[in-house]
Amino acid sequence: MSDQKNLIIAVALSIAVIMGFQFFYEMPRMEAEQVRLQALTEAQTLEETSGAETPPVSNAGLTPSVAPIAGNASGVPVLAPGTTKVGPDGALLAAAPRVPISSDNLRGSISMRGGRVDDLALVNYHETIDDQSPEIVLLAPTGTEKPYHAEFGWISAPGANLKLPTRDTLWQTTGSQLSPGSPITFGWDNGAGLLFERTYTLDDNYMFSVRQQVSNRTSTAVTLYPYGLVSRTGTPEVSGFIILHEGALGVFDGELVEEDYEDISEAQSQEHNSTGGWLGFTDKYWLTALIPDQKQRFTGTFNHSLSGQRDRYQVDYRLDAQQIPAGGSVTTLAHFFAGAKEADLLEAYNDNYKITSFDLAIDWGYLRFITQPLFHVLKWLNGLVGNFGVAILLLTVAIKIVFFPLANKSYKSMSMMRKLQPEVVKMKERYGDDRTRMQQEMMALYKKEKVNPMAGCLPIVVQIPVFFALYKVLFVTIEMRHAPFFGWIKDLSAPDPMVFINLFGLIPWDPPQLLAIGIWPLMMGASMFLQQKLNPQPTDPMQAKIFMLMPIMFTFMLGSFPAGLVIYWTWNNVLSITQQWVIMRRMGVKI
């Protein structure tokens, strides 16, 4: 009776956690976030009205040559708020001369003031499944709602007193547009013998090459440090799933380092030294990444500071000192990725540019040796059938075939236990509360009939990593985003929109997330219920009823999951039911 009571309490607590999560965590969190965003908006409006600037952060180590830009521990500038105070984005972009960026995948511009890449949209990706909806805006200039930009330049050692380009420097350009096959060169003369050139080149996808050259026309040698940075103002909204990393990341000396925004804000600054590697910011589907010369040593940092009341996050790198002799010049080459995390493309960059572990920008997880091959099989199947939903079904069948022998062994064991269940019930009636004698008699029965209770569990345990890896693939890869299935499923990465509680949209009411249960989650719950009915039932009636609550709990849990995951789960259950039913029929087990 004690075990039964504990089981009831455990299940009741599980249901309470699931039901209470929405009401006691999600809803208050969303309300608090709205209040925070409102406060930030008011603070930003006050800041723009007053024209106040955030005080510069004190420097340690190297310092930039021009105030008021402050630096981090490695000397790379930590950008203070820009001086441009304008409203609409269009007016902001027109506030300084710009060089357009145009390709089949990108649209935007580079500011000639400061030479920043701060205006970029992804042409082939939209906010919704409607192709007429706004394009995904990846980078935005200072003064917009969410400033996000990349910058490259040089810093000098303390006391050098060199005039170097800053964020307010107005560069001269050769060329009218940056596009594949048409690079653009920015030039600036400091008037004291140093000539700076920065050439941007764009490939057919999302990779910028940044070639920087300094010519020394003075009579003395000069020492400079090349740097690159990506600055992001405001904490982005994240998915909040434990299986997905969103925030800063990088590969340093071959090791992947991931830090979410909360960790960065608590640590303020984190420094990593490496030869080869990269660093940047990752969202679920989008990435910005700085890629220094893979043969040179660099110092990379993750930084946090405040812009008024807003959080600012920055990743940056600084190369070792570059000696520029009198009458000589020095050239450095870096790359900057800004685009969609398409797996094949990242792997191609990994190989073609010899970038250390660039494919790890996609969060493949600890089971990478399973998740990556599964993804490539899924994409290959999609190429054959032209539908990712059908590809998921075929991949599930393929996995079932691979594990067919193990599953057969498991289902045969469970069928034998179900066949012996009447005998077990009689033992329970015979021995009552004598649990020790009951266990002894059950073990003797299993031994006599050559049944191993563990045989039904071990094959399932072996399959769990594969199923979790497939779940991970369907969740983190962009190839599923806005991919249609059939019927009402127009986006496999979004929850099933056919919610039954509002009569599938006939009632003009948006139910809370907990109650937004679509057709596919209902079918998943039904399939799970049928699968449980085929398995050996608990001998205690109360326990059996409690276990029957599990399909209901999972139905509510999966209601907010991407439709592609629910379709996979449902189809996997159907295949398992079919296989188990056939085995039970062959063994003469009553169904």
Summarize the structure.
The protein has helices at residues 2-50, 89-94, 261-267, 343-352, 368-385, 388-402, 404-419, 421-431, 435-448, 458-476, 519-534, 541-547, 550-558, 563-586, and strands at residues 70-71, 77-78, 98-102, 106-111, 117-126, 135-139, 148-156, 172-174, 184-189, 194-202, 207-216, 222-233, 247-252, 255-259, 269-275, 277-282, 286-291, 297-307, 310-319, 322-324, 329-340.
Q: Residue-averaged pLDDT, rounded? A: 80
Read across the widest sheet, the strand sequence of neighbours is: 8-9-10-11-21-17-16-13-14
- How many discrete domains? 2
Radius of gyration based on Cα positions: 30 Å
Distance between the termini: 29 Å
Shape: elongated
Q: How much helicity do the residues have?
A: 25-40%
The proportion of residues in beta strands is: 15-25%
* The top level CATH class name of the largest domain: Mainly Beta
Outline the low-pLDDT stretches: 1-7, 29-70, 79-89
Helix tally?
Answer: 14
Number of strands: 21
In CATH terms, what is the fold-level topology of the largest domain?
Beta-galactosidase, Chain A, domain 5
Q: What structural class do the secondary elements suggest? A: alpha+beta
CATH architecture of the largest domain: Distorted Sandwich
The major β-sheet equals: 9 strands, antiparallel
